[in-house]
Specification:
Strand order of the largest sheet: 5-4-3-6-7-8
Largest sheet: 6 strands, parallel
Distance between the termini: 17 Å
Number of helices: 8
Strand content: 5-15%
Structural class: alpha/beta
Radius of gyration: 19 Å
Helix content: 25-40%
Shape: globular
Number of strands: 8
């Protein structure tokens, strides 16, 4: 960092976290350049089949503290106490849980028709699967504050589907809220269950909608490229 003319981070919270360790004079080197999506890669929006399940998808790997257990337990809690909330609902987790290849939702008594794991897919296939979902899930660890901007979130924005973020306060929550998505705390099984219940109710009512156009455009590749160009020209 000391040798650099400019140091780029994907969020302001990451700037604060990293630069706090360094001399105050270095702070002027830091700038934010977010992840970007390419609208040309998504193709046309698919038509939802009539009578199909309400489909929520998560795309990406799980590891360490960020894992699907609280989500699965929240679904089991709803299934036991409020089964009507999950009627006609399917949740798909597309990716891997690193180090837990043999884990199955069936261990918590959840049928595959409600919660299932699917193998990882290539990037373009992941974009297609995002577009085909009724809503997209962010599942974060229950940290006190989240400083990270996950790359999957920018792909979710480009997919134009409603976003449900189980995430603490911080970068992801702020972006999803600005995009008109739903944010719920991942701190407990109960908070996740309540967030899912609210999300499903709003999806059925049509009040949980696609991300706001101005937010999606902010993270389009053309806009982020222009921002990067301006940063490079300023340094030069």
């Amino acid at each position: 960092i000391g040798a650099a003319d400019r140091v780029l981070f994907t969020s302001a919270e990451t700037v604060d976290l990293v630069m706090a360790k360094h001399p105050p004079a270095w702070r002027s080197k830091a700038a934010v350049l977010p992840h970007a999506h390419d609208p040309a890669l998504y193709g046309e929006a698919p038509r939802r089949p009539d009578g199909g399940p309400l489909l929520l998808r998560y795309l990406g790997n799980f590891y360490r503290q960020r894992n699907p257990l609280t989500l699965a337990r929240a679904l089991a809690l709803l299934q036991r106490g409020r089964p009507e909330v999950l009627e006609g609902v399917r949740v798909e987790l597309i990716g891997r849980w690193v180090g837990h290849a043999n884990w199955s939702p069936a261990a918590l008594g959840l049928p595959e028709s409600l919660l299932s794991f699917r193998s990882p897919v290539g990037y373009l296939d992941s974009l297609r699967l995002m577009r085909e979902a009724d809503a997209l899930l962010i599942v974060d660890a229950p940290f006190e504050h989240n400083v990270f901007f996950p790359s999957k979130l920018v792909d979710y924005l480009g997919a134009g589907r409603p976003i449900v973020a189980l995430t603490p306060t911080g970068t992801t929550a702020d972006i999803v809220a600005a995009a008109s998505g739903l944010v719920a705390s991942p701190a407990s099984v109960e908070s996740v269950a309540e967030g899912l219940a609210q999300a499903l109710s709003r999806l059925r009512a049509g009040s949980l909608t696609a991300p706001r156009v101005e937010v999606v455009r902010r993270y389009a590749a053309s806009q982020v490229a222009a921002d990067f160009d301006a940063l490079v020209r300023k340094v030069a």
